[in-house]
Amino acid sequence: MRVAATTPQALELLHSIAATAISWSSGRLDVFGLGTNNALYHKWYQRQWGPSQNDWEYLGGTFSSQPTAVSWGDDRIDIFGLGTNNQMYHKYWDGSAWGPSTTGYENLGGVFSSRPSAVSWAENRLDIFGLGTNNQMYHKWWNGARWGPSQTDWENLGGVFSSPPSAVSWGPNRIDIFGLGTDNRMYHKWWDGSRWGPSQTGWENLGGVFNSQPVAVAWSANRLDIFGVGTDNALYHKWWDDLDGVVDDWVGKPRGAF
């Protein structure tokens, strides 16, 4: 990877905004975070840290949200974040250079109230989710040729949420999205390859009462694991598999508070 200009000193990340990290191959890590100037910075690991142990690559921009990064294949990275106008911006690494430029970003429109969540279920496929100013869920996708429903428009998926979304994919043409409603219960929507379930704007109630954004992961086809912090600050867990379906209750309490 060619190294763009870096700051002359080690980067001080904002304490209130966590970094995000992804891996596009074995032994490879890419880490992104906002500096105290709200610009995006990048560090990578492949046998050693680049551009150096303490320095970070400067990627420009001015952001109001933590970045979200995703990879759909080897040597490919896509990054999304909210600008100071709360519109969605996008940058990508294509294996040889940052696009649209090292410090430039593509405007994807919309006006949002939360950091985005992005997933990829196939090569050249991206799905991005975020909460609008009405706290409803919105969706945009890249199909390898164009953005849908358009460059700057977003699909309305309904709901009213109090937390940023968490999206995950366990296989081709499958997406599962989780978020907290205004009652702080967990809600779920899925894409099955042909339609949104339980409906275009409806959401499945998974219960619980939480005080933090959910985290969802998938480690095989038809398997989902969802985690959230309860009002007692303990960690809770629910899962779905193709044998038992969804577990009705949330499993806790593991030791520790968060």
Report the sheet-strand fraction.
35-45%
> Which second-level CATH architecture of the largest domain applies?
6 Propeller
Structural class: mainly beta
Compute the number of strand runs: 24
Gyration radius from CA atoms, angstroms? 18 Å
Main sheet makeup: 5 strands, antiparallel
Here the CATH topology of the largest domain equals Neuraminidase
Q: Tell me the series of helices and strands, N- to C-terminal.
A: EEEEEEEEEEEEEEEEEEEEEEEE
Q: Ranges with pLDDT <50 over ≥5 residues?
A: 1-16
Number of helices: 0
Protein name: PLL-like beta propeller domain-containing protein
Pfam families: DUF8189 (PF26607)
Domain PLL-like beta propeller: 24-242
Summarize the structure.
This protein has no helices and 24 strands. By secondary structure, it is an all-beta fold. Residues 24-242 form the PLL-like beta propeller domain.
Written description of the protein model:
The chain is mainly β. The chain folds into 2 domains: 1-109; 110-140 and 159-258, Fucose-specific lectin (Neuraminidase), CATH 2.120.10. Helices cover 0% and strands 42% of the residues. It has strands spanning 20-22, 29-34, 40-45, 49-50, 57-58, 68-70, 77-82, 88-93, 98-99, 106-109, 117-119, 126-131, 137-142, 147-148, 155-158, 166-171, 174-180, 186-191, 196-197, 204-207, 215-220, 223-229, 235-241, 245-246. The strands form 5 sheets. Strands 1, 2, 3, 4 and 5 form a 5-stranded antiparallel beta sheet that branches. Strands 6, 7, 8, 9 and 10 form a 5-stranded antiparallel beta sheet that branches. Strand 17 and strand 18 form a beta hairpin. It is globular. The model is unreliable at 1-16 (pLDDT under 50).
